[in-house]
C-alpha cells in the first residue's frame, strides 16, 4: 500500500541535479506541469514523501507496534501522498491528464458517498472518485481519522435514509428503498458505495452498522444492456455483466441512481464520464484510448506536447555534456510508465 515508484522518485533524482537549471523555459514548463513554483519546492515535496514512506515502513515492520496503529499510519500516509506525489487530488490522474474539469456534473436527489479502501485510494483506474466528482458526492478513505468522522456523521444523520450498495440475500431492491425513504425521510436517500476489491469490500462492510439497509440492483438492471463493463479494458473483468455482475463502482452507482430517480439522460452522462476517465487512464498507461472522448483528445495532446518537451530537454542536456538522468528523462519515463498499480 505504501509502495510507490515513478514520478516522485524521478522528480527527486531530477531535483538533485544541478543541471536542472540548464533547460531554461522547458524546466519552467515541467514545473508548471507538476504544479510547483520552484525546483526547491519540487525537491522538498519529494524529500518529505521519501522520509514519510521510510518512517511508515519502519513502523510497519516493527513487531511491537499494534496492528491498529500500523493501519492508522498507513491510511495517513496514503491520504497525504497517494500513489504518485503529483497526481490530481480530485481524479487521481497524473499531471496534465486530469479530467476533473472535463467530467459532466450531474445533480441527483440522492446523496452519494464512496467509502474507499486504502488499497484503492489514489489508484488512477479507480472509478469511485469519478462517481463522486460526477454527482457532487464524497470519497472517504476508510481508516483515515477525519474521513471516518464524516462517514459516521452521515450514518447518524436522521434526515436521510442510508443504504449500502451491496448484493446479497438481505439486500432490498431500489423500489423498496424508495418506499422506505418516502415514508421516513421525505424521499431523501444517502447511498453508500464501497470501493474495494472483493475481500477488502467484505472487510469494509463489516465495519458499518450491522442494521444499516443494503440495496442491490435488480436482475433486469439497465447495466445488463451492455455486455461488458466499460472499465474492463483496465481491470480485465472476465465474463458478461449479466453473468457475474463484474462492473465498476461508477457503473453500479449510476445504475442504482437510475433505478431510484429514473433519469436516463443522467445515467448516460455518468457513463460518458466513465469513458472520459478510462480514456485518460489508458493514455497514462501508454495505451491507445478506446472511447474517443474529450478526455482522449486532451490526453493525446498533453502527451504529445510533453514528449516534445522532454525530448528537447534531453537534447539540450546532451549538447552540454550533462547527464540525461534529469528532468527531461524523468518526464519521459513518467509519461511512459508512471503508474504503480
Ligand atoms: Zn483531476
TrEMBL record:
<feature type="domain" description="DTW">
    <location>
        <begin position="84"/>
        <end position="286"/>
    </location>
</feature>
<protein>
    <recommendedName>
        <fullName>tRNA-uridine aminocarboxypropyltransferase</fullName>
        <ecNumber>2.5.1.25</ecNumber>
    </recommendedName>
</protein>
<dbReference type="InterPro" id="IPR005636">
    <property type="entry name" value="DTW"/>
</dbReference>
<dbReference type="InterPro" id="IPR039262">
    <property type="entry name" value="DTWD2/TAPT"/>
</dbReference>
<keyword id="KW-0808">Transferase</keyword>
<dbReference type="Pfam" id="PF03942">
    <property type="entry name" value="DTW"/>
</dbReference>
<keyword id="KW-0949">S-adenosyl-L-methionine</keyword>
<comment type="similarity">
    <text>Belongs to the TDD superfamily. DTWD2 family.</text>
</comment>
<keyword id="KW-0819">tRNA processing</keyword>
